[in-house]
Amino acid sequence: MIRVREAREEDVGRIREIFLAVYGTDYPHRELYDELWLKRSVFTDDALILVAEDTESGRVVGTASVLFDFGAHSDLVGEFGRLAVHPDYRRMQVGKLLMDKRLEAIKNRLHVGLVVARTVHPYAQRISLAQRFIAMGFLPLKHFFRHRESFALLARYFGDALTLRRNNPRIIPEAYALANLVMSQPPLTPDFIVDEDSASYPSGGDYRLEQLQAEGYPALLRIERGRVRNREIFGPMRLDYGFFKLQARQTNYFLARSGTQVVGAVGYTMDPVEHTVRVFELIALADDVVRFLLGELERKCQEEMGIEYIEIDVSAYAPRMQRTLLELNFLPVAYVPAMVFYQVERLDIVKMVRLNKLQDLGPLGLTEPVQAVADVVMRGFSTCVIAPRMARAIKEVPLFHGMNTEQAIRLAGVCTVKNMRSGERLFAERDPTDRLYVVLQGQVAISGGPSPAIIGTIHTGETCGEVSLLSARPHSATAMAVSEIEVAELPRRDLEDLIRRRPDIGVIIYRNLAVGLGDKLLRSGEWKRDQERSETESVLP
Fold first, then answer.
1. Beta-carbon neighbour count of residue 488 at 10 Å?
2. What are the distances in angstroms from CA 392 to CA 325, 444, 483?
């Protein structure tokens, strides 16, 4: 029989053995192998440590914890983490028993419970979903084990969490798909406003960057904006926790100075083993200081600190900050309602991530709800690679003619780019249509008729498939790569969603498609007349 109870001091060595058996010696969180750290965790009020015990043998066969200091003080957020079951006792419901006991123990202590679950297998995801946790996000390449792994973020609400939530967050369009997916899951209800108009924070100002020292601390405390007023970035630490505690938690701040005056700072924690940074506070006297600090931090992470993953929890009510981060290549990876307790209510956050080193995600074991979230998130990261290629093609592609930079980037962001070999089909006659193709490089031959013959050629910069896309009918011809080609695909669903939210872009798209279609029809007529003339000449004596 398996019994779950709170850990005692004598369990520390057994807990360490379980982590070694499950993760081996290369687990990045080395504190879990430190018996002194584990002993402190058993006695501290900041953590609940449970063990699963085989009552017949007295053997400790599993462990799990809740960390109550995951958010800032008074946030009432806890992480359900460190769940490990000895390999000898897997598939015996030990993980479920540990989860049940954790929920029973914390129901009066938390508003929000989070699970950061591994995705190399679905076990923790399944246990969490069975306990009414909701899939909130997908964190690509967040932690380093034997290689970088992605994680799923799930959440569950307790007590008055949703009653205290501030309604009607304002999010940028790029966060819409993820927010809508999350908020459509019971007991949540979509109530956000998509903000199309808010501009990002401006560049400018003559500022100098330096590391925070004790002498700069009082001057920084006197700045209210971003610290106690108009707070837009959140995390587990804050400047007013005290200089000593900040140092003890390995927390750093970059200061911005204008002459001798301190005008702002950005606070972050860095994990040198995992090459990750988490930004938790941004304080600034002026708008252009915001952009300066974020830009300089991003530059230093990439060029000097060797950081591969940067994470920021940004207020879902701050579209200017969301837009600024997006322009610095941060992308939404999670939407967590009521995550932060700020002043008198709970706020939603958009978790945004910048990956400085894009790489293959490796094999994933995802449950269906997590897969749906991962698909939305990774579509954005695909755009990180696609957008620069599309940006270079914008001047060459008639579909983008007449668009300003913002409109063109928005359209490029819903495209995917693929390479195709010579002779490979884009689509065949009578195939259902679900996307538009833009030829970025190479040529595509269009053929049709009872005895298939070439009826036209699509060149670099032109589109194909638009007739079927616009008419919602199957393709009337076959499109095949003449040589190796590069094409951008624009799925019908994404195009319709973009046009619904941005009719100004839709007007330009339809106009350009009509012009392009007219040009191709004229060219096709000329090509047909040339063919007929050639055939006539070949039969003349």
1. 24
2. 22, 20, 21
